[in-house]
Design a protein that fits this description.
single chain; about 140 residues; mainly alpha
Length: about 140
């Protein structure tokens, strides 16, 4: 029977908590922005909504940990998230005119203590360290 991350100890619980907090925060932020001032900064607000989707999907994947494909899907999601943080972070520094209001990923997540940039890196490292295929090859998996 598949186990959720909540059944295990260690980084998985922390990542589930962080993705849950970011899912609620980014979704709330983007909904308020889009419903109240969509025409003011449509690119920034649309990207905030995209970031919210990424965090919601990450949260659900971590809650359903152990189901077939959850590890691969989380790896892809982290790469999408990291790409978004790097691209939007760079654009928000170089082309401030595109971002009259900040997004979750603006300035590489500076408004969120750089957690949007650090979180996918930490999860990717955790996925590599706990890969059951590595344990099957004789390399012990760590949690």
């Amino acid at each position: 029977m598949p186990r959720g991350v909540g059944d295990s100890l260690g980084p998985g619980r922390l990542f589930t908590l962080l993705y849950g907090v970011f899912a609620v925060g980014a979704t709330s932020r983007s909904l308020v922005q889009l419903l109240t001032r969509a025409s003011h900064a449509p690119l920034a607000y649309g990207l905030s909504a995209f970031a919210a989707c990424v965090y919601v999907v990450g949260f659900v994947l971590l809650l359903r940990w152990g189901h077939p494909g959850s590890r691969s899907a989380m790896r892809v999601l982290c790469l999408v998230e990291l790409t978004g943080v790097l691209v939007i972070g760079t654009l928000s520094v170089l082309r401030r005119d595109l971002f009259p209001d900040a997004t979750v990923w603006s300035n590489f997540g500076m408004g969120y203590l750089f957690l949007p940039a650090l979180l996918p890196l930490a999860v990717l490292r955790w996925l590599r360290r706990t890969d059951p295929r590595a344990a099957a090859d004789g390399v012990p998996a760590q949690s």
